[in-house]
């Protein structure tokens, strides 16, 4: 009986966590470059239940041998194993702003170990001085003319240096070259490449970090990595709002079903305590 409480409780916790993740996805359906989170729910390993019996041997000392009769397998519930961002590229849309840039995947190699396709990111300098990565190209110029992201992190060039401009009258070609108002090339926009983006740590505001803190290699010159950029455009969120809503309702129903089972267990325990154990 008590084991049923634990099994139902784990199901409720897993569905609650899944609901939170789906809600966050829907809240970011219009966030540029946002990658929706995917969840994986797994069951705990099954436990083999056995009955312990004793077989008496007709001897003077009355020896008894214990034997096990298998009853069957029983599970201890489920848990939310992991969440992974869906790296599928979102739709590209026009903004008309010179400092908005969209990264467009043309061809990405597949990692042999994981079977996942590689991914490219804009390079940013975070608060600790190391690099973070994003697909959100919604950039702007700060008060000193530095190209920054919406959180104020510096956008880096291909050499890992900050970029500073007198004004936003710049032109960015499809290969990432940056030209000033006199059509003189003043740099190249930094782009990093990850062979297996699933191992990156997802942070708030659409940022990614490496697990070991080592910067990702440049995407320029990487074998089989082909991409382009489009100025005055942004990559939209890859959240499928209709699917997210359907999954959210399914998670709610699963939570409610577990809740009903929990209430049934509670009533059974109440009956056992108050009626079966009553002494007249």
From TrEMBL:
Flagellar basal-body/hook protein C-terminal domain ranges (all copies): 230-274
GO biological-process terms attached to the record: bacterial-type flagellum-dependent swarming motility
The record's subcellular locations are:
Bacterial flagellum basal body
Query: What does UniProt give as GO cellular component?
Result: bacterial-type flagellum basal body
Q: Supply the PROSITE patterns for this chain.
A: FLAGELLA_BB_ROD (PS00588)
Keyword Acetylation applies: no
Domain (Flagellar basal body rod protein N-terminal): give its ranges. Answer: 5-35
Task: Identify the main location.
Answer: other
Q: Does the keyword Nucleus apply?
A: no
InterPro entries, A to Z: Flag_bb_rod_N, Flagellar_basal_body_rod_CS, Flagellar_FlgE/F/G, Flg_bb/hook_C_dom, FlgE/F/G-like, LlgE_F_G-like_D1
Q: Where is the Flagellar hook protein FlgE/F/G-like D1 domain?
A: 118-178
For this UniProt record, the keywords arranged alphabetically read as follows: Bacterial flagellum, Cell projection, Cilium, Flagellum
The record's annotation in PANTHER family points to: FLAGELLAR BASAL-BODY ROD PROTEIN FLGG (PTHR30435:SF19), FLAGELLAR PROTEIN (PTHR30435)
> Cross-referenced NCBIfam families, in alphabetical order?
FlgEFG_subfam
Q: Which family does it belong to?
A: Belongs to the flagella basal body rod proteins family.
Name of the protein described by the UniProt record: Flagellar basal body rod protein
What does UniProt list as this organism's lineage?
Answer: Bacteria, Bacillati, Bacillota, Bacilli, Bacillales
């Amino acid at each position: 009986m008590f084991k049923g409480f634990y099994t139902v409780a784990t199901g409720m916790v897993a569905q609650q966590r899944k609901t939170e993740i789906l809600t966050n996805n829907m809240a970011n359906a219009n966030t540029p470059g946002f990658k929706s989170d995917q969840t994986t729910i797994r069951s705990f390993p099954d436990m083999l239940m056995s009955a312990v019996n004793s077989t008496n041997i007709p001897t003077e000392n009355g020896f008894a041998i214990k034997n096990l009769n298998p009853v069957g397998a029983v599970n201890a519930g489920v848990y939310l194993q992991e969440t992974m961002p869906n790296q599928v590229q979102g739709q590209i849309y026009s903004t008309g702003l010179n400092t908005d840039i969209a990264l467009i995947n043309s061809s990405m190699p597949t990692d042999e170990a994981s079977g996942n396709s590689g991914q490219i990111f804009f390079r940013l300098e975070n608060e600790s001085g190391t690099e973070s990565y994003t697909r959100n190209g919604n950039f702007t110029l700060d008060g000193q003319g530095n190209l920054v992201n919406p959180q104020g992190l510096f956008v880096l060039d291909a050499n890992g240096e900050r970029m500073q401009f007198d004004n936003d009258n710049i032109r960015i070609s499809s290969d990432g070259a940056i030209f000033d108002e006199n059509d003189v090339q003043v740099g190249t926009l930094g782009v990093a490449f990850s062979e297996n983006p699933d191992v990156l740590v997802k942070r708030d505001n659409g940022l990614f970090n490496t697990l070991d803190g080592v910067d990702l290699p440049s995407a320029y010159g990487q074998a089989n990595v082909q991409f382009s950029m489009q100025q005055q455009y942004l990559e939209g969120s890859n959240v499928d709002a209709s699917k997210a809503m359907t999954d959210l309702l399914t998670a709610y129903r699963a939570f409610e079903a577990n809740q009903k089972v929990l209430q049934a267990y509670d009533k059974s325990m109440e009956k056992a305590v108050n009626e079966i154990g009553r002494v007249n």
